[in-house]
Amino acid sequence: MGIDLPDPAVIAPAAPAPAPAAAADPMTPRPFRVLRTKRELSDTFTLWLEAADGTPFAFRPGQFNMVYTFGVGEVPISISGDPADPSVLVHTIRSVGKVTEALGRLGPGATVGIRGPFGSAWPVEVADGHDAVFVAGGVGLAPLRPAIYRVLAQRAKYGNVVILYGARTPEDMLFARELQQWRGRFDVSVHVTVDRVTGHWGGKVGVVTNLIKAGGFDRRDAVAFVCGPEVMMRYAAEALVERGTARENVWLSMERNMKCAVGFCGHCQFGPTFVCRDGPVYRYDALEKLLTVWEL
Length: 296
Ligand SMILES: Cc1cc2nc3c(=O)[nH]c(=O)nc-3n(C[C@H](O)[C@H](O)[C@H](O)COP(=O)(O)OP(=O)(O)OC[C@H]3O[C@@H](n4cnc5c(N)ncnc54)[C@H](O)[C@@H]3O)c2cc1C
Ligand code: FES
Hints:
This protein is α/β, with parallel strands linked by helices and 296 residues long. It has 2 domains: 17-117, Translation factors (Elongation Factor Tu (Ef-tu), domain 3, Beta Barrel), CATH 2.40.30.10; 124-292, Nucleotide-binding domain of ferredoxin-NADP reductase (FNR) module (Rossmann fold). It has 9 helices and 15 strands. It binds flavin-adenine dinucleotide (FAD) and FE2/S2 (inorganic) cluster.
């Protein structure tokens, strides 16, 4: 197809060594108990889980688990909780099919299988001394939330902290109360937009890239973390670069179908990389060409 595909080693400079839990036996799910569930939106819910053997679950912001529901199947889901609290594992999930719908029917006391954590992390340390900009679309706020918690926990290390969020409608706004709490702080800027107005909405209307254009951060100096539907990430990354943010300071989280999650089966191939092993968090400069190739 005539494009010059980058070297995977260049694509994923932040790929970590496997975390200890994953390295022990990456193919065997560990039993976790559902402590609590919450319906966030009509099609999205959060599960709070604890290991049946009580072991703390350490992870880095941006990493994901394979979540297995017995008799139905296993899906990759990012961790949406606070990395400072390994006593509880949090996943926020949108019901789109067989496995995610089955997970949505679970209640407190149910058991799921967990493999992980897997994959690369949001490199929040790269933003030390810089403006940190989070750009999220839809349920993409969930994989970014651990990085937001981490940055807010070490707020003094960063310049401006800016959260830009786009949802389809006001009713589709994930973590709306938390967005309001962050907006209430004097040291964080939160801007929200919706694609379509329903009910009484007095806020911004339009795509999340409009919020990037509005600014509120030092574009040359900023480090941006972007998560959402692929087309949204592509336009957001382009808008950031157009406004002066360096390509190597823009990070995206990719999704592909997965089976093994440890780099064996090839299901998650993305150009010359495997998303489970080299991603899901990639640096934009090396990913740019792949994003423009339809259905790669
Ligand atoms: C690294 C990684 C992290 C992820 N993190 C999250 C997360 O935090 N929260 C979350 O809700 N989901 C997340 N996903 C997506 C999630 O894995 C899929 O939605 C899930 O695998 C669908 O499985 P299913 O059996 O429910 O649906 P399926 O029966 O497999 O699919 C049903 C329908 O949904 C479509 N579909 C499948 N996958 C997706 C997708 N990724 N996005 C939109 N439509 C899809 C299919 O094309 C099909 O039409 C992540 C995926 C990856 C790779
Ligand atoms: S899911 Fe098997 S290689 Fe990535």
